[in-house]
Amino acid sequence: MIKEDKELVGRIKELKKKRNAVILAHNYQLPEVQDIADFRGDSLELSRAAAKTGAKVIVFCGVYFMAETASILSPDKLVIMPDISAGCPMANMMNAGDLRKLKEQHPQAVAVGYVNTSAEVKAELDYCCTSTNAIAVVNALSDKKEIIFVPDKYLADYVSKKSGRKLITWHGFCPTHVKILPEDVKREKKFHPKAKVMVHPECLPAVVALADAVLSTSQMAKFAKENPAKEFIVGTEAGLVYRLKQDNPDKEFYLASERAVCPNMKRTTQEKVLWALEELKDEVKVPENIRKKAHLAIERMLKII
Ligand code: 13P
Ligand code: SF4
Predict the structure, then answer these.
(1) How close is the Cα of 43 to the center of ligand 1, in Å?
(2) Statement to judge: residues 192 and 233 lie in one domain
(3) Is residue 227 part of a domain?
């Protein structure tokens, strides 16, 4: 727990109760935001938490596609973002028209898309997936001849290698994870030879090849807790280290690269959460025609895992 502004945190808690709100935070959020969240997690866990909550208002501390996903799953709730300008550059690398064209080029293919996509893109998908379940989703499609997998070319590469399936991909990538270079991991391994290397599948294939484990953010949290190792090299966005240290005070975590900071994930602050609760905005609402179609793709995913 970071040194907290007691008055600010007190006002957030009070208002949260009054508004019947729940605060969801992604694992990459600033420590001060993670500290006030009712729930923090990876993309899959946040989708599930959004679907289950009985609260009337969801304050989404993450990036835009995540709040859209919450709106898709909870159309009757008010979904608000403390900073609506927090987007995901990877999600913005593909629009619905791009996917429609790709589907036209491959009319026999089933379309699988990473959760890091806009609601409009999700509406064009057959299946959604997250970094936790991407391999399971592709493996569940063994009867399908062709599979489109978008937008992340590096996640696609990893899933393809693990599932043994050739995938039709897109040229998307995460600008934050590509900042982690193989030489970063090699350097940290030299400094900490006993450390286990865990990396996110959004990383470059050359980085993935150096890892002991390739995991989503919450899978990393679980791995760090359960693995007997005392030291870990962390190949993902810097924000996760706060949670890892909190959960495992007796273990050491070394960020593979200090450059791996997602500016969009750092836009949300405690003050902005308070303002969002005060003014009940900015609302993220997916239009019903898009929502229904996108919901199907997410539901199909949730049935697999
Ligand atoms: P996960 O938390 O699902 O591993 O996703 C990482 C990410 O980049 C989210 O934007
Ligand atoms: Fe998007 Fe990468 Fe930032 Fe995640 S870390 S929100 S994938 S840019």
Answers:
(1) 6
(2) yes
(3) yes
* Residue 295 structure tokens: 């919901």
Query: How confident is residue 98, by pLDDT bands cut at 50, 70 and 90?
Result: very high
Q: For the residues 161-170, what does the mean pLDDT come to?
A: 98
C-beta 290 within 6 A of ligand 2: no
Q: Are residues 96 and 120 in the same domain?
A: yes
pLDDT attached to residue 2: 63
Q: Does 291 map to a domain?
A: no
Test site for ligand 2: of 43, 46, 63, most ligand atoms within 8 A of the Cβ: 63
Instruction: Report the mean per-residue pLDDT for the chain.
Output: 96
Residue-wise DSSP of 4-66: P-HHHHHHHHHHHHHHTEEEEEETTS-HHHHHH-SEEE-HHHHHHHHHH---SEEEEES-HHH
Of all ligands present, the nearest one to the C-alpha of 265 is 2
The binding-site residues of ligand 1, defined as CB within 6 angstroms of any ligand atom, are 27, 42-43, 88, 116, 130-131, 174, 200, 202, 216-217
Bridge partners, 252 (sequence order): 231
pLDDT one-digit tens code per residue, 83-97 = 999 999 999 999 999
Cα–Cα separations (whole angstroms), residue 228 to 73, 132, 160, 191, 219: 37, 22, 30, 19, 15
20 and 79 share a domain?
Answer: yes
Task: Determine, yes or no, domain membership for 293.
Answer: no
**Residue of 131, 133, 298, 305 to test ligand 1 pocket, by largest number of atoms within 8 Å of CB:** 131
Residue 107 lies in domain: 91-173
* Ligand 2 close to Cβ of residue 87 (< 6 A): no
* Structural domain count of the chain: 3
The minimum-distance atom of ligand 1 relative to the CA of 43 is 3
Q: Are residues 220 and 160 in the same domain?
A: no
Q: Do residues 192 and 245 share a domain? A: yes
Please compute the mean of the pLDDT values over residues 193-206 and round it to a whole number. Answer: 98
